[in-house]
Each structure stands twice: as C-alpha cells, then as structure tokens.
Amino acid sequence: QVQLVESGGGLVQPGGSLRLSCSASGFLFTSYSMRWYRRPPGKERELVATISPDGTRTQYVDAVKGRFTISRDNAKNTVYLQMNSLKPEDTAVYYCKSTAHAYWGQGTQVTVSS
C-alpha cells in the first residue's frame, strides 16, 4: 500500500526558510516522478514542483521559482522541498505525491507570519 508521510512544516517569519520532507513507501520510488502540492487556506490544492525519477529534471510553478528547490534521495525513498525567502502567501498545507498513484499523505502545515 502506498504511504506518504510529510514532515518539516511549522511557523516561520517572512523571509525565513523551511525544509519539508516526504517519506514514501509501498511503491517503486525510483521509477516515478514526485510532486509537491499545497492547499492555501480557503483555496484549491495547487501544484508547486515536480522532480523526475532520477532527480535530474525539475519544474516549478512561477510563484515559487528561484525560492523553492525540490530534490530527492532515492536511497532513502524521500523527496524534499527547500523553501527560502518565504512569503505569507506561501502559507498552506503541503503534500507530496507520485505522478502515478492517487494516494495523498496527511500533509504538513506551513505558516508564514510575523
């Protein structure tokens, strides 16, 4: 069974940084692209970043380009999201997901506020 466990969220001031982690199990992690999504308060879930199976290709939504970095460690079945220069509009619950499965984790809350 596919399991995704996100962690690393918290409360941070504007301009600060956080590193999110997503531990995956139940599928062949190295075969699939992975994505980070977020759901801001009162809004729909949106795609944030994608990384290829081997980690060599990444894509970002325009709102986070230059501030967020997605990476993965295939030996640990883990995908990361390094978030720098955080803004209040980055406040959301963040989720990871493979591109081939319909399962979601519980998410991790990120709150950017002074």
Would you mind describing this structure in some detail?
The chain is 0% helix and 48% strand. With 114 residues, it is mainly beta. A six-stranded mixed sheet has the order 2-10-9-4-5-6, with no helix packed on it.
Question: Which key terms come to mind for this protein?
Answer:
about 110 residues; mainly beta; six-stranded mixed sheet; four-stranded antiparallel sheet; 10 strands; about 0% helix; about 50% strand; globular
Outline the fold blueprint:
Blueprint (H helix, E strand, L loop, with lengths): L2 E5 L2 E3 L5 E8 L8 E6 L6 E6 L6 E3 L7 E6 L4 E6 L8 E7 L9 E5 L2
Q: Please report the total strand number as a whole number.
A: 10
The helix content, as a percent range, equals under 10%
- What oligomeric state is this? single chain
Shape from CA axes? globular
Main beta sheet strand tally, sense and closure: 6 strands, mixed
Secondary structure category: mainly beta
Output the strand order for the largest sheet: 2-10-9-4-5-6
Number of helices: 0
What would the average pLDDT be, to the nearest integer?
Answer: 97
The sequence of SSEs as H and E is EEEEEEEEEE
Strand content: over 45%
**CA distance, first residue to last residue:** 40 Å
Output the radius of gyration.
13 Å
Low-confidence stretches: none
Offer a quick outline of the entry.
The protein is mostly beta strands.
